[in-house]
Specification:
This protein is an alpha/beta fold. The protein has six helices and four strands; from the N terminus they run H-H-E-H-E-H-E-H-E-H.
């Protein structure tokens, strides 16, 4: 793993995992359509979230879009373990969570129709930034 030092720092902090309105796929879909892009419909999306923590953002969306598939990656083994435990308790089947460095995620990146990140919560929404995630 390229980011071993960063991964160790994430293990030391138990950060919160929750939904972000700005990266909700229906919101991104509508905003992209208004800007002339043609993204896949949310109910058939294959979503990758980079830095998913324990999957709070994905869980909220997977409950709404049951035919979509969600994959989350995070550097924190503890966060991924907590997320998998939550998914088991809730019974959600359309999410996969992996402890993985983005630098090692080519196989996963190639199969997604939409890539989101908590970074989208802090970015201005423009046609240029939309193309990064659609």
């Amino acid at each position: 793993m390229i980011n071993d030092a960063i991964a160790k720092s994430y293990e030391a902090a138990n950060y919160v995992s929750h939904a972000y309105e700005q990266s909700f796929i229906a919101n991104l879909h509508a905003r992209s359509r208004l800007r002339g892009l043609n993204p896949k419909a949310p109910n058939s999306a294959k979503v990758l979230e980079i830095g998913c923590a324990s999957g709070g953002n994905l869980i909220a969306q997977a409950l709404v879009f049951k035919d979509a598939h969600f994959t989350g990656i995070d550097l924190s083994k503890a966060q991924i373990k907590n997320g998998k435990t939550a998914l088991e308790k809730i019974g959600i089947k359309n999410i996969d969570l992996f402890c993985l460095d983005i630098c090692d995620a080519r196989r996963i990146l190639a199969r997604r129709s939409l890539i989101i990140s908590s970074l989208t919560a802090f970015m201005p929404y423009t046609k240029t930034t939309a193309r990064l995630f659609l």
